[in-house]
Amino acid sequence: MKQKIAVFILVLFPLLALGGLFWFLHVKHQLPTQIVNKEKMPLEFKDNTVTCALCNMYLVGKKHTAQIITNDLKTHFFDDIGCAILWLKEQKIDPETITLWVFSTESNRYIDALKASYTFTEETPMLYGFAAYENPKEGMIDFTEMRLRMLRGENMSDPKIRQRLKGQ
Fold it and tell me: Taking phi first (over 0 means left), then psi (-120 to 50 degrees means alpha), and beta for anything else, what does residue 93 get?
């Protein structure tokens, strides 16, 4: 009987240890898109590990990026705030019902996108031109106006709009 218990322990312990190791490695190498974001805070990511939920472009750096945390606590990443706006329209989600973070150009941190002020002539990954700022300055627009311009197609990706905004 003691011999069966000893064999059982000698077999069970390594299997449990191996299972624990695999679980630890899985959690450690989990992509941010797989994390349940209970705190609804922006998640860290490494370059070229997550893609934009709309255009599938890899995110490199945080500049101009946005993160949407939906009500199911899943985080969706975007390389450009314009992509986030188009994705919300595509998913039929009202921005007021979710958590939306955008990376601030001036303070180098994520801020509440609905409270941010935006310029509309900057070079952004998808050429929409909207860059977020924490502190409003003259000539900037609010989230509602930025969203409206994005949905109308009035952004720097349109050559005629670009020419008009850049004064060329």
Answer: beta
Which residue, among 48, 95, 28, has the nearest Cα to 67 in the 3D structure?
Answer: 95
Which pLDDT band, with edges at 50, 70 and 90, does 27 fall under? very low
Can you tell me the distance from the alpha carbon of 68 to that of 110, in angstroms, rounded to the nearest whole number?
A: 11
Closest listed residue to residue 118, CA positions, set 86, 137, 142, 102? 142
Domain boundaries, the chain: 2-30, 33-166
pTM of the model: 0.81
The β-bridge partners of 112 are: 101
When the pLDDT of each residue in the chain is averaged and rounded to a whole number, the result is 89
Q: Which residues are CB-neighbours of 82 under 8 A, at least 6 positions away?
A: 124, 126, 128, 129, 130, 150, 155, 157
Q: How far apart are CA 80 and CA 57, in angstroms?
A: 10
